[in-house]
Amino acid sequence: MEILYLLYLVLAWYVSKSELVGAESQDQTVLLAINQELRVPGWDANSSNYCSWQGVSCDNHSMVVKLDLSHANLRGNVTLVSQLKALRLLDLSDNNFHGFIPPAFGNLSDLEVLDLSSNKFDGSIPPELGGLRNLKSLNLSSNLLVGKIPEELHRLQKLQEFQISSNQLSGSLPPWVGNLTSLRVFAAYENHLDGKLPDNLGLASELRILNLHSNQLQGPIPAGIFAAGKLEVLVLTQNNLSGDLPPELGNCQGLSNIRIGNNHLLGTIPKTIGNISSLTYFEADNNNLSGEVVSEFSRCPNLTLLNLASNGFSGTIPPELGQLLNLQELILSGNSLFGDIPESILKCRNLNKLDISNNRFNGTIPSEICNLSRLQFLLVGQNSIRGEIPHAIGNCAKLLELQMGSNYLTGIIPSEIGHIRNLQIALNLSFNHLHGPVPPELGRLDKLVALDVSNNRLSGTIPADLKGMLSLIEVNFSNNLLSGPVPEFVPFQKSPNSSFLGNKGLCGEPLNSSCGNVYGDHNNYHHKVSYRIILAVIGSGLAVFMSVTVVVLLFMIRERQEKAAKDAGIAEEETNAKPTIIAGNIFVENLRQAIDLDAVVKATLKDSNKLSSGTFSTVYKAVMPSGMIVSVRRLKSMDKTIIHHQNKMIRELERLSKLCHDNLVRPIGYVIYEDVALLLHHYLPNGTLAQLLHESTRQPEYQPDWPTRLSIAIGVAEGLAFLHHVAIIHLDISSGNVLLDANFKPLLGEIEISKLLDPTRGTASISAVAGSFGYIPPEYAYTMQVTAPGNVYSYGVVLLEILTSRPPVDEDFDEGVDLVKWVHSAPVRGETPEQILDARLSTVSFGWRKEMLAALKVALLCTDSTPAKRPKMKKVVEMLQEIKKN
Ligand SMILES: *[C@@H]1O[C@H](CO)[C@@H](O)[C@H](O)[C@H]1NC(C)=O
Ligand SMILES: *[C@@H]1O[C@H](CO)[C@@H](O)[C@H](O)[C@H]1NC(C)=O
Ligand SMILES: *[C@@H]1O[C@H](CO)[C@@H](O)[C@H](O)[C@H]1NC(C)=O
Ligand SMILES: *[C@@H]1O[C@H](CO)[C@@H](O)[C@H](O)[C@H]1NC(C)=O
Ligand SMILES: *[C@@H]1O[C@H](CO)[C@@H](O)[C@H](O)[C@H]1NC(C)=O
Ligand SMILES: *[C@@H]1O[C@H](CO)[C@@H](O)[C@H](O)[C@H]1NC(C)=O
Ligand SMILES: *[C@@H]1O[C@H](CO)[C@@H](O)[C@H](O)[C@H]1NC(C)=O
Ligand SMILES: *[C@@H]1O[C@H](CO)[C@@H](O)[C@H](O)[C@H]1NC(C)=O
Ligand SMILES: *[C@@H]1O[C@H](CO)[C@@H](O)[C@H](O)[C@H]1NC(C)=O
After folding, report:
1. Coil, helix or strand for 199?
2. Cβ of residue 163 lying under 6 Å from some atom of ligand 5
3. What distance lies between CA 602 and its chain's CA centroid?
4. Which of 216-220, 435-439, 865-869 shows the lowest mean pLDDT across its residues?
5. In the structure, what pLDDT confidence band is assigned to residue 576 with cuts at 50, 70 and 90?
6. Could you tell me if 392 and 413 are in contact, meaning their C-beta atoms sit under 8 angstroms apart?
7. Is the shortest distance between the CB of 338 and ligand 3 below 6 Å?
8. Which residue among 55, 282, 397, 554 has the highest number of C-beta atoms inside a 10 angstrom radius?
């Protein structure tokens, strides 16, 4: 009997073992098939040790338990993955997968983490996913999913994180979400969800983060969600929620963020708000809330932002708010508040924005207002504020914007306002009862863009000193008692005459009344911006000189080598009239008929076809017998090794030809003859960005306006961000490598070079690839390596060209100083940013100027001399898009 049992055991062991071996080799087969389908970079199909492939982890039995293929720019059908039966983690996030989410994933019963976010999956969420009974984290955000949240997902009882945001899901939030007792994070923002928030959402007793903003949710915020008391972040902004704020929110002492703005919420703010000791961010603007601004906010010591704008609050500002030492923004505009700005508020020493505009405040402005030393925005317009503007206002040194219009202010304009040298955005004192002269000291506000002192009782002349306001664009002196000539100052004369009307005694342009001889000829003031350069700081001067010298030397050596190589090439071509094509292909199916490879080769033998010459290549225009025009790039200093690795190069080209991005010039084909490689591209008729910016003499009519330039800047940034995303470092970013299509859409060119001449691959003898002069990052002098931050630097130079219309190197800049140094040393020279920007654009409108200043900031970040401090290209794109949006 025992022997039999033993035998049974041995047999069982043997069977299970052979099963395992079977499963194991099956995982290998599956992975090989996956690789066949997706071509995963870094997977070596020849190595049988698949457990060591990138992103693959196995258990003790060589079964794949983790598969992480995130951020790899992959596409293809991922259904096969469902055959890796032991998977516990599957991360396919941030790729280009599209089509349906494979229902077969629902059979991965050991799966604990499934992340499919940031892809292009469409269709609805497969109900089969409800079979993932061990799932703890499901992330489907940032896809193109539609339809309802399937009922079957209620079976995911172990779920801790559930993220479906940024899709196009519709329907209502299912009640069973509340039954997910382990749920900690639920994010479904940016969808089309409607209906009510389920009452039992509160049963999800572990819920920490609830983010549902930008949907069409209706009805009240259920008190239940605060019942368990663990909520930390509540974001419901931009919905259609109504009803009162439940007092139960005070249960959640760990709640740091409450963002419920842009809804239809009613009622008062519950006093229990004071129990939320962690409250940092309370944003409830644009609702129908009413009652008082409760003093209980003062019990939230970490409160940083309090935004109650555009509601129906009444009463006064509770003095207790002065206890909020961390408060940075207090935004109460658009309510019915009255009384004073309480003195106690002046204790909020971190306050940088005080916006009480558009209320019924009827007190005075405290003379110690500038005890708020960090104040940048003081917005008190449209109230009933009385009394005088305190002289101490000059102490608000950081102020960017001062809005006091439409009040009952009396007295004079204190000359001390002229001390606020940072004042940039606006100085608005209009519609008050101010009298006396316009203080000449205002002329010191050389960054100020908009000045409005209209509708007061100001008298005397407009002081000629105001011509010091070098940044002025908008001005309004109308409806005062001013007299004398309007000073001759471009921003004044360019203003509409309505800016000066309503002053009986004013004369001169832009008013129609001439001043006659009474005031005689005014000493003509010609406002001239000096662009003269003071030499760069001595300390950095030597370093700059050294690195520039090294780079120039390298550059010269390479040029010489290339020239020799090319001369030799031409001599050969002449003796051999009809070169034989070794290899050639057109990648784009429907262009095969139109392109004749012999004609391509011939076109590159004629100098008259030459379009431009870059660091690594010369570009020719080739007209095909079919009439089609293609652009042909002949690689300079072709390396024999490239020819020897021809197949590799062709593979690389084919891969690049599939890189799909609107802002990249992709190869459409190639020809190789002798040791020459020609790359074919679509012909773009509008030339390069360099030509557009720096050869305006060729097209005197056309100066690209700011919106066009900003779009170009964003396009180039997007192209480059995409390259970095797929781990390609560009080797030669310059305005000369940015081509423009018929609609001035920018396309970044020469992307192949980085693959074909990549020194780390040992396929090129050019070991010092640096790019074009003026775009070379300073660190290159010692690292001799082009990196992603190096690319960001070069991009920053292109952005500076766009902003200044100046080339990257120019005789105008002193020796050793290029565009970057010139811009960065502007403060040392005492020049404001305005003096750097192309004045033909920055003076057109306030809006343009503001955007250009913001873009200049981005360019300065990109060209920071420390590589680590430069932003990533992705971030650059975001920053520029933000500028465009505003
Ligand atoms: C894999 O093996 C095949 C045939 O054994 C060979 O042709 C191929 O070059 C190998 N691939 C790699 C990447 O080593
Ligand atoms: C894998 O094997 C090691 C040692 O052989 C053991 O300590 C570990 O617990 C095993 N892990 C699993 C998941 O079986
Ligand atoms: C992927 O392949 C499976 C069969 O292997 C097929 O059923 C499915 O429709 C394919 N999915 C997509 C999105 O093409
Ligand atoms: C899941 O597994 C079951 C049983 O093995 C099978 O019948 C079913 O077709 C599988 N589902 C999918 C979607 O592959
Ligand atoms: C889910 O995906 C979104 C979008 O890619 C990402 O921001 C978020 O961090 C992911 N969540 C988790 C838990 O990985
Ligand atoms: C939630 O759980 C409760 C009790 O376990 C049950 O009565 C109810 O039907 C469940 N609700 C849903 C929508 O599954
Ligand atoms: C908002 O909700 C109300 C009912 O509370 C409804 O009448 C209205 O149509 C909703 N608006 C939108 C845009 O969904
Ligand atoms: C306030 O913030 C600090 C720093 O984040 C934190 O350590 C502290 O616990 C917070 N205070 C409260 C009451 O939450
Ligand atoms: C300010 O307005 C409030 C409410 O209208 C009024 O009660 C109060 O007397 C006013 N204060 C002053 C100083 O006019």
Report:
1. helix
2. yes
3. 45
4. 865-869
5. very low
6. no
7. no
8. 282
The yes-or-no verdict on residue 513 having pLDDT over 90 is no
Tokens of 787: 């990196």
The CA distance from 373 to 300, in Å, is 22
Q: Taking the CA of residue 499 as centre, how many other CA atoms within 13 Å lie in the half-sphere pointing to its CB?
A: 18
Q: Which amino acid is at 783?
A: T
d(CA 328, CA 326): 6
877 token code pair: 């794109």
What tokens appear for 626 in the block? 């079919």
* Ligand 7 site residues, Cβ closer than 6 angstroms: 216, 218, 240, 242
Span from the CA of 80 to the centroid of ligand 3 (angstroms):
9
| Cβ contacts of 502-509, under 8 Å, gap ≥ 24 | 502/454, 502/478, 503/477, 503/478, 503/479, 505/481, 506/462, 506/477, 506/482
Q: How far is CA 105 from CA 79, 102, 113, 742, in A?
A: 8, 6, 12, 46
Q: Which residues are catalytic?
A: 732
Structural domains present in the chain: 1-151 (3.80.10.10), 173-346 (3.80.10.10), 362-514 (3.80.10.10), 577-683 (3.30.200.20), 685-886 (1.10.510.10)
d(CA 32, CA 46): 10
| C-beta of residue 503 within 8 angstroms of C-beta of residue 480 | yes
User: In this structure, what DSSP letter does residue 537 have?
Assistant: P
Ligand 9: centre distance to CA 339 (Å)? 6
- Residue 103 Cβ < 6 Å to ligand 4: yes
Mutate to test the pocket of ligand 1, among 46, 47, 48, 53 (most ligand atoms within 8 A of CB): 46
pTM above 0.85, yes or no: no
Mean pLDDT, residues 148-174: 95
The pLDDT-based confidence of 415 (bands split at 50, 70, 90) is very high
Which atom, in ligand 3's list, is nearest to the CA of 102?
11
DSSP-derived letter for residue 519 is T
Instruction: Show Cβ contacts of residue 389 under 8 Å, excluding neighbours closer than 6 positions.
Output: 365, 404, 409, 411, 413, 414, 417, 429, 434
Ligand nearest to the backbone CA of 77: 3
Rounded distance from Cα 77 to ligand 3 centre (Å): 6
d(CA 358, CA 845): 26
**DSSP 8-state secondary structure symbol assigned to residue 332:** -
CA 121 / ligand 3 centre spacing (Å): 13
Position with higher pLDDT, 661 vs 814: 661
What is the pLDDT confidence band of residue 250, given thresholds at 50, 70 and 90?
very high
| pLDDT, tens digit (0-9, with 9 covering 90-100), for 162-193 | 999 999 999 999 999 999 999 999 999 989 99
Q: What percent of the chain has pLDDT over 90?
A: 53
Q: Which ligand is nearest to the CA of 63?
A: 2
